[in-house]
């Protein structure tokens, strides 16, 4: 009889636990629907109920904390996520949310301490390096670029570090890395406002890059990969006298890839240049260069080009949809 009662009790408890889990799951999904609609007040209302039912649920805590942040309720946001940050039960996303909230509260020292701790726990999280670098950049700290570079090295398919590094190098003499990081960025994050911004940087960057008639006049302190890049680009300098536009950049970059593959591809395998070679082989390289440089050079001319090359541009667009661009680990040459 005791065994039967014990079995019934266990069954009742398990049913209750499953029911509670289902309730929490439904609440969480409903709240996320409100967040997607921009109704953050209703989302936090529901997420608070879900947290009462499952106070150790990190996923709910992250959403609730971020939802409070979106409502500028930063103290409540911090109170929600802080127990997870301090109990070492946080994941890298939770640390990113925590850092964002600390920064919004003006608690830069707490944010920096947390970022350092988080990076030790999650050394391959590109988002943490990106956010820490942005916080340092807000203070005009020169160490910001070191964080973005480390993020590129450790998590090479995370877009944010390329974006910030590209913009940083755009204001320095490091034009090679501005061009390379910018092009990687637009291939990873292809359809946002930041994409359009970086495309403008790329077009103007190439114009400044080729302002020097000899790209090899100053190779002091440059890495072997950079020298290889400059050597191949320098061989295309004669084309520059025609002016730089999507058509001449297509010619320059086509010849660059052919020269690179002859001399350096085996020594420096690099996914970006492999993508360019693939697009050349499939007859899509012109469309690719129009996509990068066309609208920035002349929007009306770009629209005219896509209209008169609709089949080619549609093929390129389809290529983008089915080929997700990622940089593998180990292809870091900075």
Question: What key phrases describe this protein's structure?
Answer:
334 residues, 17 helices, mainly alpha, globular, disordered N terminus, Serine Threonine Protein Phosphatase 5, Tetratricopeptide repeat, single chain
Structure description:
- The protein contains 17 helices and no strands.
- It has a domain at 22-107: Alpha Horseshoe (Serine Threonine Protein Phosphatase 5, Tetratricopeptide repeat), CATH 1.25.40.10.
- It has helices spanning 2-37, 40-53, 58-70, 74-86, 92-104, 108-121, 126-138, 144-154, 159-170, 175-188, 193-209, 224-234, 246-263, 271-281, 285-297, 299-308, 310-322.
- The chain is mainly α and 334 residues long.
- The protein is globular and about 70 Å long.
- α7 runs parallel beside α9 (159-170).
CATH topology of the domain at 22-107: Serine Threonine Protein Phosphatase 5, Tetratricopeptide repeat
What is the annotated CATH architecture of the domain at 22-107? Alpha Horseshoe
Briefly, what CATH class of the domain at 22-107?
Mainly Alpha
What is the strand tally?
A: 0
Percentage of helical residues? over 70%
Given as residue ranges, the uncertain stretches (5+ residues, pLDDT < 50) are 1-20
Could you tell me the mean pLDDT?
91
The CA-CA distance between the termini, in Å, is 73 Å
Topology order in helix (H) and strand (E) letters? HHHHHHHHHHHHHHHHH
**How would you classify the helix and strand content by structural class?**
mainly alpha
Largest sheet: none
């Amino acid at each position: 009889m005791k065994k039967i009662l014990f079995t019934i009790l266990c069954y009742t408890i398990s049913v209750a636990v499953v029911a509670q889990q289902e309730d929490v799951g439904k609440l969480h999904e409903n709240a996320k629907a409100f967040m997607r609609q921009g109704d953050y007040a209703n989302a936090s209302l529901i997420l608070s109920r879900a947290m009462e039912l499952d106070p150790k649920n990190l996923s709910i805590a992250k959403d609730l904390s971020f939802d409070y942040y979106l409502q500028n309720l930063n103290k409540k946001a911090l109170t929600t996520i802080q127990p997870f940050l301090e109990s070492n039960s946080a994941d890298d996303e939770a640390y990113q949310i925590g850092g964002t909230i600390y920064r919004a509260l003006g608690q830069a020292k707490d944010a920096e301490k947390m970022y350092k701790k988080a990076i030790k726990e999650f050394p391959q999280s590109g988002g943490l390096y990106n956010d820490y670098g942005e916080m340092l950049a807000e203070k005009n700290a020169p160490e910001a670029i070191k964080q973005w570079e480390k993020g590129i090295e450790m998590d090479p398919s995370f877009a944010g570090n390329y974006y910030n590094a590209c913009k940083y190098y755009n204001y320095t003499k490091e034009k090679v890395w501005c061009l390379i990081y910018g092009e990687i960025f637009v291939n990873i994050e292809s359809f946002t406002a930041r994409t359009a911004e970086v495309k403008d940087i790329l077009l103007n960057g190439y114009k400044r890059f080729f302002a020097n008639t000899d790209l090899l006049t100053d190779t002091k302190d440059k890495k072997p990969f950079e020298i290889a890049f400059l050597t191949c680009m320098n061989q295309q300098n004669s084309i520059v006298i025609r002016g730089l536009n999507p058509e001449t950049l297509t010619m320059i970059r086509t010849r660059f890839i052919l020269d690179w593959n002859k001399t350096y591809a085996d020594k420096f395998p690099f996914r970006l240049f492999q993508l360019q070679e693939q697009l050349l082989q499939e007859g899509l390289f012109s469309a690719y260069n129009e996509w990068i440089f066309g609208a920035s050079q002349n929007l009306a001319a770009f629209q005219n080009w896509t209209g008169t090359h609709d089949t080619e541009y549609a093929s390129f667009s389809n290529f983008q949809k089915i080929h997700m661009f990622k940089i593998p680990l180990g292809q870091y040459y900075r």
